[in-house]
Amino acid sequence: MPEQHDPSQAAAPTAPGAAVESAPEDPEPDPDASAVSIPSGARLVLATHNAGKLAELRAMIAAELPGLDVERAVVDAGSLGLPDVRETGTTFQANALLKAHAAAEASGLPAVADDSGLAVDVLHGAPGIFSARWAGRHGDDTANLELLLAQLGDIPDEHRAAGFVCAAALVTPEGAEHLEFGHLRGTLLQEPVGDGGFGYDPVLRPDGLDVSCAQLDPEHKNRISHRGQAMAALAPHLVALLSQGAPAAEPGEER
Ligand SMILES: O=c1nc[nH]c2c1ncn2[C@H]1C[C@H](O)[C@@H](COP(=O)(O)OP(=O)(O)OP(=O)(O)O)O1
Ligand SMILES: [Mg+2]
């Protein structure tokens, strides 16, 4: 009987940075081997499946690492085909670390993950880590926000203090971890306002401003946001990691 082997069905384990043309003739794939194909030039994985976060994280990394070719060097979990990680942790930091470890292990590249959410004072910090699934179904921003507004329907402005929280984790394939936090305090509006951003942006008015997060231009939001703060704190670690094995220093720079 001829051996059944369809190379198009085979998953190719790849070394970090290697472009794979064809599958190996190995009929017994190693279950531990990565089935992820890494585009050449990739240096960092953003371990998120949230398009809104991804756009913000890419812009932040471009701003923090001006020498980096972000288009090429920064890939995301979705485009690598990495599965969504079950967020089994009970804190933002635990879930950020879970997501970053999973992506770093699967890709062989350093990975950054963000676990974030909205914490409402009168709800003792809820929705918190349950922000993305507050209305029951994961990632339905409109349903989440409408449920929250309905729950707080009787609460007057002076008791609507809330804040975004972000834990950002950088994990290397060897398992080294860096974890940083950021917060953005504000007041929950009675109705959604603005059409920028994502998630709960239309219902949080940052302290000191008279617009919602969804009315800020992206640069302004990133400058003051929970995610912006956490990523700024992570930046020196990212710079140190990504400058390892980097080409040359700037002309004239002492080494
Ligand atoms: O700047 C923000 N502006 C508005 N809403 C935000 C923000 N930052 C987090 N949020 C909300 C969205 C989601 O309801 C939850 C994050 O949940 P979180 O599990 O961290 O992300 P996710 O599941 O959407 O994507 P992933 O886990 O793949 O990164 O908090
Ligand atoms: Mg999530």
UniProtKB/TrEMBL annotation:
Keywords: Hydrolase, Magnesium, Metal-binding, Nucleotide metabolism, Nucleotide-binding. Belongs to the HAM1 NTPase family. Substrate binds at T48, H49, N50, A51, G52, K53, S116, F198, G199, Y200, D201, K221, H226, R227. Pyrophosphatase that catalyzes the hydrolysis of nucleoside triphosphates to their monophosphate derivatives, with a high preference for the non-canonical purine nucleotides XTP (xanthosine triphosphate), dITP (deoxyinosine triphosphate) and ITP. Seems to function as a house-cleaning enzyme that removes non-canonical purine nucleotides from the nucleotide pool, thus preventing their incorporation into DNA/RNA and avoiding chromosomal lesions. Residues 10-22 have a biased composition (Low complexity). GO terms for molecular function: dITP diphosphatase activity; ITP diphosphatase activity; metal ion binding; nucleotide binding; ribonucleoside triphosphate phosphatase activity; XTP diphosphatase activity. PANTHER family: INOSINE TRIPHOSPHATE PYROPHOSPHATASE, INOSINE TRIPHOSPHATE PYROPHOSPHATASE/HAM1 PROTEIN. NCBIfam families: RdgB/HAM1 family non-canonical purine NTP pyrophosphatase (TIGR00042). It is an enzyme of class 3 (hydrolase). Residues 1-36 are annotated as: Disordered. SUPFAM superfamilies: ITPase-like (SSF52972). GO terms for cellular component: cytosol. Homodimer. Its cofactor is Mg(2+). The active site is at D115. Binds 1 Mg(2+) ion per subunit. It comes from Kocuria palustris PEL. InterPro entries: dITP/XTP_pyrophosphatase, ITPase-like_fam, RdgB/HAM1. This is dITP/XTP pyrophosphatase. Gene3D superfamilies: 3.90.950.10. Pfam families: Ham1p_like.
